[in-house]
Each structure stands twice: as C-alpha cells, then as structure tokens.
C-alpha cells in the first residue's frame, strides 16, 4: 500500500511539474520580447532566402551610437546599389487602424484597443541617424515596416508597410541605381566599424537611454503647457511695435469685436460627443441586436457604424449616422 502511494505521489509530481513548465512556456511565448525576437528571425530568413547576397548585403540587430551620446537600435539594414533599406519589424495581431503621418496607431483585438507609436515615425529616427553617421543623402535611404504577425489593416495600408515575406519583392522593386559599388562597400565598412557589440549589456544600455529620453519628454510637456497661458516678459521687437501702432478707425469691425466677449486665456473645445443612437433593426444575418461602435479615421474624423452583438462570431457591420451634441461655451 505504501508503495502504491509513493507511485501516486510520483505521478502527481510529474504532472505538476509538467503543468508549471507549460505555464512558463506559455508566458514566454506570449511575451513582447519573444514576439519581437520571432519577428526579426522570420525577416532574417526571408531576406536570406529571397535576396541575392552578391547584390544585397543584409545586416541585423544594429545598435549605433549617435553624436549626442545616445544610441539607436535598427532591426535590419539591407545595402545595395539601389539604396539603403532600413527595416523595422513589428509582430502584431488583430486589426490595425493608422495612417502614414499619424503619431499613434491603434491595435484592436476582440474588445481591447491599444495605442502604440507609429512605426514609420520610429523608423524615421533610424533614417536620420544613418544619414548623419554614413553621410548618405536621405533620398538614398528607404524606410520599410514589416508586419510578421496576423494583423490586418482596416484603413489604407501605407505604401512603406508590407506583410510577411512580401518584404522581398518590395525591396527588389527598386530598380534605379543610387549608389556606386564602391559606395556600397564603404557603407558596409562604416556600419561594421560603428556598430556596438550585439550583447545583453548593449541592449540594456540602449533601453536605459530610451527610458531617459522618454522621461525628459514627459518632464518637458507640463512646461510647454504652462507656456501657452503665460506671456514672456521680453522687450517688444520692432515688428511687434509696428503692428501695435494706431490703426485707422473701423466702425463696423470695432462694433462686431466689441459684441464678442473677450477671453483672457485660450479655450480648447473637446471633440463633439455622439449621443446614444436610436435602436436599429436586428442583425440581418443572425437576428441578434446591433450595438453602436465608433473608430477614428485617417483624417481625424470619426467613423460610426453598427456591429452585431455576437461579434466576433458574427462579423456583420453597417454604417450609421451619429447624432452630435452641439458644443457649449
């Protein structure tokens, strides 16, 4: 009997260890760091399989030091006579809403919405760093954002954004010769000489630089807000003095201006808030109720639509017109 209990405890211990191991493995696979590593590995494999190494020279995981002492980390750089391709990899899922010049994009999956920095803006810093360090004109640098996950754009996808292995035909679509073979070799030598060692210490130092930069940016924002409501105590320049000179009388304009109440500080009106829409007809597919939803468009306006309550099982959507409350002073 004792031997049976020992065997039972041994089996239960093995199952417990297996469950803990699976939980740890699931946490690692779902972590942002692993997803980023997986996306970079996929892009590295696609570039190696689809680009001729005699004409396209790929470098990966480059950390470069900038003149101001900070660092920048670039996922992939492809150097050829057709230019320098700077690749930023993003492993995303769900629906993506964003435009080329928007500051932030929105990622939506199920009922969760997450805002993140526009990767094209993030990659712009990489292009400016290479322009400074390599002395290459900005017109010879090509920005590319590669999506390696299952994300789908629900707005017009910017032309510099590609999905998966489509990065290879996108790079090969540039046919104009921008760099001489001697310039390509010089750029490769410069990158190899200026890149920092791809070690854990380098990564930690780069993350520390990013945190300091974001901390300075957040610390400067309240000051910039206060400047909006203050008047600098500086002497009036000649141009301003000329503008403040007496002007000819304008009876009609002066009467209109006098009728408008003056404000001592700027007033920022919020976006119009849509009211609760009226009930719509049931879903034509499954007869479930429809719920009102809104998303922001590329131009900053709002798109209002009906969506089936059983989403994502039923994906029926139809447009609607929002009833907007007037702004109050």
Keywords:
329 residues, 22% strand, NERD, alpha/beta, disordered C terminus
Structure, explained:
The chain is of the alpha/beta class and 329 residues long. The chain contains eight helices and twelve strands. The protein has helices at 2-30, 32-50, 119-134, 167-172, 181-194, 200-228, 238-243, 251-259; strands at 57-65, 71-80, 83-90, 95-97, 104-109, 112-117, 141-147, 152-153, 161-163, 290-296, 302-308, 317-319. It has a five-stranded mixed beta sheet, sandwiched between helices. It has a four-stranded mixed beta sheet with strand order 6-5-4-8. Strands 10-11-12 form a three-stranded antiparallel beta sheet, with no helix packed on it.
Strand order, largest beta sheet: 1-2-3-7-9
* Low-confidence segments: 220-244, 259-277, 322-329
Written as H for each helix and E for each strand, in order along the chain, the element string is HHEEEEEEHEEEHHHHHEEE
Multimerization status: single chain
Biggest sheet: strands, sense, closure?
Answer: 5 strands, mixed
Helix fraction bin:
25-40%
Structural class: alpha/beta
Concise overview:
The chain has 329 residues and is an alpha/beta fold. It has 8 helices and 12 strands.
Secondary-structure map with pairings?
Blueprint: H1 2-30, H2 32-50, E1 57-65, E2 71-80, E3 83-90, E4 95-97, E5 104-109, E6 112-117, H3 119-134, E7 141-147, E8 152-153, E9 161-163, H4 167-172, H5 181-194, H6 200-228, H7 238-243, H8 251-259, E10 290-296, E11 302-308, E12 317-319
